[in-house]
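Q: What would this chain look like folded?
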Amino acid sequence: MNHLYYSIFTNSLIQASLRDANKGFESMYDQVAVRREVESFLLASILGRDTVESAYLFSNSGEIFGASLSAQRYDLSDDEKMELAKGEGRLVWLDPDPNRLTVPAGAVVNDIQTQKKIGYILITLRESALFDIYSQIKLFNNGELYVINETGRIVSHSDKCRIDRQVTEPHLVEAMEGPPTGFIRYIDAGKRYYLTYHTMPGTQWRIVNMISSVHYEKESIMLRGWILLIMAGSCLLIIPLTIWVSNTISRPIRQLSATMESVRNDGSDVYFDYESQDEVGVLGQSFNDMIDHINYLIHQVYQEQMRRQEAQLKHLIYQINPHFLFNTLDTIHWTAIMNGVPEMGRMSKLLADLIREGIKGEDFVTVEREISNIKKYAAIQKYRYGDKVEVRVDIDSEILPYYIPKFLIQPLVENAIGHGLEPKIDNGVVSIRGKLQGSSMVITVKDDGVGMDQALLDSVVAEMLRDQNGEMSHIGLSNVYHRIRIYYGEEAGLSIESELDVGTTVTITIPNGGLTP
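A: My prediction, written as structure tokens:
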């Protein structure tokens, strides 16, 4: 309704026609031409609208333009024009016409440019169409349904004779004066009635629905019967449906439970066979993945146990490595030739200490004890190389109490001297550093020896990463690498950096989880 009103009064043709009518037409021809245009526009605006019967425009000068789907014409009284003026441009509902069975609504039309009144617009609705619309919300089959406007007049009613009658009944007056929505019980002529009402949005009109208690209770009983019938039918459907759904859900769960029990009793090679992609299927796939992971871990633990035993055996062999003993005894031999007997005793003492340390049954020693062994080894090498080899130690005191595998650093020092410094013409230095870095212990063995080119470095790293089978030229590196991986897992690491004619740096990283003070 508002949309139709605004589309008419804001139209440029309507605005110009009302202004021209107020000024007066220059000729009868102009008046007829404007009337034809305006009424054609009004007729096109209401066609296709089932609820609208007519639309009229009234100029200030008294000119009337109209389009109606019936033969009846409509005029505005002075009182109605005053009512429309009170709306200040908004739609105002007027009292219905019981003779025409229409409900009129109108408004003042203002000049869009000057905002001065140039006329009025009136749109009438068919009461029958209005009744058809709101009767669809009728709550009870045997009740009365009607609409009362803000002045208390009946706008629409199933009994057309009551249209435009002023309501005076106390229960209807109470409904008009009450809140926007309500429920009223009342007695009329000894009979009880129930009344519900609701305010139409955007208006003060009340839709009233009234029914006697007899019909109300009858319909309530019928409604309860239908509810019970629907509930009974629903139960007949829901019970077998619930059983079916329950079995559909619980059967694979029971199957999964039986599979788990079988794994617990018979081993870990049993899988859950269920191809659906529902929640149970996802759970079953997770169970199968868990079984695969358990089998993988069992295999890994077995392999690590075998590697640990092999590493322990190789470590025992390495403790009495003929190459190590040969180098040491050779140093003693040359020292005896060059310097006589006095140094023989000290070298023998250092060698005995190292051999004694190697044959002890301990797998782990403190960093402090490992450094002490290295210093003994370096002292022996000092007799052989003199000032050509210098071993420097820089270990943070906070890591000295921590335990590491025995002879973890010594093979790296031996490699640095034998492969890095010995081929070098000038003197060289082996630097050993140790510290906590973040959550890990980092130990580096660095030499300023001959170093390696990239090809040789790649070959050394590849040899280190291989299983400890067959001949190797860098047994110490491979032994250290595999031992820390066995003891500390994949988070532990050993890296090698080298540059030809610059030197080599070997870095051991032990994760915090493997450190024990």
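The mean pLDDT is 79.
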